[in-house]
Amino acid sequence: MKKILTAVLTISVLGIGLIAFYSMYVRRIKLSDVNPPIEKTREAQALSAFFGLDALPAQSLLLYWRGPGKNGMPLVLSQEVDPSTLDNTDFEVTTQNGVTFSVEFVTLKPANEEFELRTILFIGEYGAYPDNPPVRVTIVGDLMSRSGQNYKGQSLPVIPLPDGPTISYAEHFIIDDDYPYVKSGAGCDCPKEETEQVVRTVWAGGVRAANGKELGDNELNSFQITLVRGKDTTQVHPFKLADLGDGDNNIDLCLKEKGTPVLVEAEAGIAIDPRNDLNPKTKKEVVSRW
User: Fold this and answer.
1) What sign for the dihedral angle of Cα 104, 110, 115, 119?
2) What range defines the domain where residue 230 resides?
3) Strand spans (E) along the chain
4) CB 275 within 8 A of CB 52
5) Residues paired with residue 175 on neighbouring β-strands, in sequence order
6) Is there a domain that residue 123 lies in?
7) Could you tell me the CATH number of the domain that includes residue 56?
8) Are residue 272 and residue 212 in the same domain, yes or no?
9) CB 200 within 8 A of CB 268
10) Are 71 and 57 in contact (CB under 8 A)?
11) Same-domain status, 234 and 187
12) Are residues 130 and 209 in the same domain?
């Protein structure tokens, strides 16, 4: 009897611990101290909706208790959202046959670090490929950007399930004394002393290298950044990639060169999404964070 009571107690404690960990994992997000003032002069836009997975893996249990087996669809926005205004009722998904689904669950995980809060992951059932896949996402509620703009009313097509990941957003910034620098571990930043500036790429969905591992040194020359220096332009490659190992859709390109980045390009076939679809050649205009 004593062994049974001990086992029950152990299971109960473990269960409470798992619930606490689950709660922390889902709800913990990091707001930057300052929202870039330049965002007030830019229009907040929905950039991409990606039917990334028709059956989420078991690990999605850490995001949503009913996640495994459900559809996963990241929505990328041009500006960070105000998390207090985010709710699953803010969105509708329309399928090829005209059926409209409410969104079951939304989260900013795993792209939940400072300056990353622009990707919203939908989890639920939103049609089935190939008979009746989702084709459009509409923002129907008051979803606010951190600059005070309302995304309500915006609608955009869904990138189909078989398509590979593309770059949805890109910005450049420097690592100064006020930057929330992460030196090591999952999601760590570019080497501080060697980096002149960073180009952050935000993909339509999470990406890994084509071999299934993290993107890294093998892909450096597959990224090209166009820099403007006065009246001249030049193309450079990153010397290192950063913000890796955290499972999100943000990849930082570390540059040693000065100049204003205006365009980032990635060759086809260097990255895969969680369904192992290879990326097409993709490029995006680079904007300034500040």
Assistant:
1) negative
2) 167-288
3) 46-50, 71-77, 91-95, 100-102, 105-107, 119-124, 134-139, 155-159, 167-173, 197-203, 208-209, 223-229, 232-236, 240-242, 250-255, 260-266, 271-272, 282-285, 287-288
4) yes
5) none
6) yes
7) 2.60.40.1220
8) yes
9) no
10) no
11) yes
12) no
**114-168 residue pLDDT tens:** 999 999 999 999 999 999 999 999 999 999 999 999 999 999 999 999 999 999 9
Q: Residue written as tokens 């997975």?
A: 53
Q: Which amino acid is at 2?
A: K
Residue 74 sits at φ, ψ, to 5 deg, of -80, 140
Residues 280 and 188 both lie in one domain: yes
Strand order across the beta sheet in which 91-95 lies? 100-102, 91-95, 134-139, 155-159, 46-50, 71-77, 119-124, 105-107
How many domains are contained in the chain? 2
* Beta-ladder partners of 107: 121
What are 237's two structure tokens?
């490659």
Residues in the chain: 290
Could you report the per-residue pLDDT of 176-197, keeping only the tens digit for each?
999 999 999 999 999 999 999 9
What tokens were used for 178? 């006020």
* Residues 204 and 136 placed together within one structural domain of the fold: no
Neighbour-count burial of 19, counting CB atoms closer than 10 A to its CB (0-12 exposed, 13-18 middle, 19+ buried) = exposed
Q: Are residues 119 and 139 in the same domain?
A: yes
